[in-house]
Design brief:
This protein folds into 2 domains: 135 residues, Nucleoside diphosphate kinase-like domain (Alpha-Beta Plaits); 45 residues. Helices cover 47% and strands 12% of the residues. The longest helix is centred in the C-terminal third of the chain and has 26 residues.
Length: 218
């Protein structure tokens, strides 16, 4: 039985500017990856330095940070068996010029510019993938893909306290002896007291001003 592994994939600003984001995503899916999550964003200098902290002090670091903050990028959570190794294989050599010589059909050969502006990024290990996914997708909840221990920890820290409060409230009110009514009452309580329930906030400033849309890569 195959195991679904996750990895982080980035489509860097050079490929986004060239309008190749959707094409790269389609090639990823044709190569067997599931696109589990995606978002477009632009890194601040502080966030880029944090993401590439392991390279701080190296000669190429300022140029790397400058490039990664130069425009929007796409962050993706990619899933398939052996995802980390497979995505890195699909990307090809780090230097796009080398990639064109050694692996002309890889992503960096097709869409990269040079050694630094190489179109894509991928995690180099499962541990890096978990850390990098959390960096770009802190809102994602742990699931079975991360193993039973992570799931148990999440349930213990996040679900159990809310469920305990609901059961305590249910015992206090004693709505009915009918099991279905009891479950209905608990369900309504959980809906009303969900800590992740979205709240509508009034927009600041002049509400007549149009919203700024996220940049498209076409």
């Amino acid at each position: 039985m195959s195991t679904l592994e996750r990895t982080l994939g980035l489509i860097k600003p050079d490929a986004v500017r060239a309008g190749k984001s959707r094409e790269i995503m389609q090639l990823a899916e044709l190569s067997g990856f599931q696109l589990l999550a995606k978002k477009t964003l632009q890194l601040s200098q502080e966030r880029a330095e944090e993401f590439y902290a392991e390279h701080q002090g190296k000669p190429f670091f300022p140029g790397l940070v400058g490039f990664m903050t130069s425009g929007p990028l796409y962050a993706m959570v990619l899933g398939r068996e052996d995802a980390v190794k497979s995505w890195r294989g699909l990307m090809g050599p780090t230097n796009s010029l080398t990639a064109r010589e050694q692996q002309p059909t890889c992503l960096r050969a097709l869409y990269g510019t040079n050694g630094t502006q190489n179109a894509t990024h991928g995690s180099d290990s499962s541990a890096s993938a978990n850390r990098e996914i959390a960096f770009f997708f802190p809102e994602l909840q742990p699931d079975a893909l991360e193993g039973p221990e992570a799931t148990a920890t999440y349930l213990q820290e996040n679900l159990n306290p809310t469920l305990l409060k609901g059961l305590t409230e249910l015992a206090r009110e004693k709505p009915s002896s009918n099991p279905r009514e009891v479950l209905r009452s608990l369900a309504f309580w959980l809906l009303e007291n969900n800590p992740n329930k979205p709240h509508v906030m009034e927009p600041e400033g002049d509400a007549s001003q149009p919203m700024v849309e996220e940049p498209d890569d076409d």
